[in-house]
Design goal:
This protein has 171 residues and is mostly helical. It has helices at 2-12, 34-48, 52-65, 78-91, 93-98, 125-137, 153-156, 158-170; strands at 20-23, 115-120, 142-146. The protein has 2 domains: 2-31 and 103-170, Rossmann fold, CATH 3.40.50; 34-98. It has 8 helices and 3 strands; from the N terminus they run H-E-H-H-H-H-E-H-E-H-H. The two termini are 26 Å apart. The mean pLDDT is 92.
Length: 171
């Protein structure tokens, strides 16, 4: 969501943006894979049933563990640290949705600021594809791959992310 806001802001107010960093960004209107559709259906069913605990598990499984690793490969304690924030996000999902409708008009090829696009190589294939679209579509963008990260790059690979951001922000 934050990445979507950043792209929309860069398209709407190009003179107010000096650089852009996108980590596992969404793509408006993306044709999601069967895995993503199944995730969405599972989350929707759990929420419709009032089963917030299952919805939290579905989200942690998709976004933290990802499709390519077992829970034993996720940093100890990280799922527990995220359980409450994920719950809060799900409980307030309707309110967030009200404030995140629509998208800025514009072509990402017009973004003319230094842009770093990060992708976790353990993330869902859809987000790997989307990151590559941004990196290809934004002139001069740099794609950084994080081999040990799923969707939540900043939590999975904080040192690697900091190492990528330092020289990028120093330019």
């Amino acid at each position: 969501m934050v990445d979507r806001v950043a792209v929309n802001f860069a398209l709407t107010h190009p003179g107010r943006v000096r650089s852009l960093t996108l980590l596992a960004p969404p793509w408006p209107g993306y044709d999601w894979s069967a895995d993503m559709v199944a995730y969405d259906e599972a989350e929707t069913a759990a929420l419709a049933a009032g089963d917030i605990d299952t919805a939290v598990r579905v989200n942690l499984d998709m976004w933290l563990r990802g499709p390519s690793r077992g829970w034993e490969d996720v940093a100890a304690g990280l799922a527990e640290r995220l359980r409450t924030p994920v719950r809060t996000s799900l409980v307030n999902q309707d309110t967030v949705g009200e404030h995140s409708r629509g998208r800025a008009e514009g072509d990402i090829a017009t973004i003319a600021v230094p842009t770093l696009v990060g992708i976790g190589l353990l993330d869902v294939a859809d987000f790997q594809d989307i990151a590559r679209r941004y990196a290809t579509g934004i002139p001069g963008a740099t794609l950084v791959e994080f081999p040990a990260a799923a969707h939540l790059i900043a939590l999975d690979a904080p040192a690697e992310l900091a190492a990528a951001l330092r020289p990028f922000l120093a330019r």
